[in-house]
Amino acid sequence: MRNIYLVARRELQAGVAKKSFLITTAIMLLVLIAGVFVLDYFVNRDSSEDSEPIAFTSEAQGLIPTVEATAAAQGLSLDPSTVADAAEGEAAVLEGDVIALVSGTPPEITVTFRSAPSQSMLQVLTSALQAQTMSEAVSDLGGDPAAFTQSLTAAVPQVAVLEGDIEDFGPNYLVSMMVLALLMFGLISSGSIISMGVVEEKASRVVEILLATIRPSELFAGKVLGAGLIGLLQLMVYGAGAFAAIRITGILDGFDIPVGPQLLAMLGWFLLGFAAIGTLWGALSSLVSRQEDVGAVTGPMMFVVLIPFYVAIYLVPNAPESAWTTNLSMAPILAPFVMPIRQVFTEVPGWQVAVAVGLNLLIVPVIVWAAAKIYHRAILHTGSRMSLREVFAKSA
Fold this sequence. Notes:
By secondary structure, the protein is of the alpha/beta class. Helices cover 69% and strands 7% of the residues.
């Protein structure tokens, strides 16, 4: 363990001191933070400059003056109109003529959207409904505090959607894509660090000197551990930057999305994925002796990362509770990508998360054994690329 620790510390110190690492990390951090601020700018500009059409039924049209005043106070411009009945209003919502339909008799109203509820509009309607209820309660109930409080508390609009699931809206997808992209980038970046380190030592024959003092398994374990810590450090920096930008802009205020816990969980899923993917990535790199040949042997590892990435992108948001999604979110290799995104879109039972972690941990010893065999047999081989058949035939 002492030798593994020394190699890991050397890899960590050398990796974080490289200009390429510092520049890449700084650029990615700036891009991530700037992306959040740019998105917040366009969201706020659209909500403040464009008038959003909204329809009221005849029973709810008494809310229009209060809603307009409340919207103006909150910087939102509305274009209210009236419809004959709820059916006409729902048709206008489905056709896209209005953003929402307000129906019912205050304080019991329903706000109907086509798919994704507008949180800013809901906030305006809630404030307007409560303000009007307050005024009516004070006058009609003679200022009775108990009755007034009860009436005010009940003045919350009910939300209905005509198409899709109310939980499948933009902010959920934004958070899931950010987590998924950071996880993919961390795994690819860490795998590349191992590849370059292994091939560089092999090409310069430094590995021969190192193996005179420590065992190949110790050297390989230290390099994998060091690269994993570098990747984890990068993700911590990116996650902290993204979380700070989200909190500063308030772009997700009003949405029940646990951004902080999702980012922390991402670090755990990274370690679990890297234990399998990064280990095998480094072992395959030992099959070649030149940097220009690395892509030929590590190319399949890109598919190992990209396939779960695209599965998580296209399958989970569309069917977060399907049997396919449930099974793939617990499958080895796939779970670090699919499970955290599934947790954004639906409530996942604790036992399924435990099974996902357990199954992925079970395959780690198998992958570590295979990777150690490959590295031990191929690291001192020079010249042409060594095939896996030659590696295991030699070990036999």
